Amino acid sequence: MVPAMEILRHGGSALDAVEAGIRVIESDPAESSVGLGGLPNVVGEVELDASIMDGRTLAAGSVGALAGFEHPISIARRVMELSPHAFLVGDGAARFAAETGFSPCMLLTARSRRVWQQGLPESLSARGRRELRRRGELLPMVRQAVERISQHGTVDFIARDANGNLACGVSTSGWPWKYPGRLGDSPVIGAGNYVDNRYGAAACTGYGELVIRCSTAHSVVLYMRMGKSIRAACRSAIHDLAPLLATHGGAVNIVAVDRENRSFGVTSSAKGGNYWVVSEGSATPEKRALEIVVP
Fold it and tell me: Are 189 and 70 in contact (CB under 8 A)?
């Protein structure tokens, strides 16, 4: 958070702050669900998703299923600013990254490789793991592995600058042992990320497939547009997810900021959780508890 806040304190833009803050997390190999050292898909490849959005112009950029590049948040911003598109995925996103000056790197660390191997069937030999890319059937293995998921997550950043402009960014490696090419909510504008200066911003973590179906981040901002308080908007979005959560299980977390720069976080999980807030006068980040709303 420190680089992001320094940018804001020196008059920088919300977009610059969001990108800088997320890049720190993407470069930390100890963060197993974001960037370098992210947990790989079922064939052992780390695929990254990210999105960034400008609340002043509603411009947005996203990349999905991106392999071999450490900073998907920066590549998403280049998509927004340099291309006529909003969303690039897979090989196309990697080609764009290389063309716009990003250097490829190895994302799989020794630690993330060990975790990946532990999630595969015990009967699978070392040779079998090496040949997974050519295997015809992956779906049964994916279904078995994801039932054991105990760790995955996302980094969400929302910033408001001195000019009152909001920006939001999201970055993740998504579910470990996922099917190759899987996209969660993080790169999907309106699902895991949405911001509009006139009303506020929201970002999500958790069960991305459900968030996509409910367009949760956009719903939070829409509820604020309709006149609901930030707290009521987040609670309403969780209740929208109730039928899906009841059917599929899992949890969804939402963090949001309104146009008055008030922040709020909510979760559908009975276990709760935390988010962090840094204001202009803060010396250190303030940890706040997510409000639990079990639908």
Answer: no
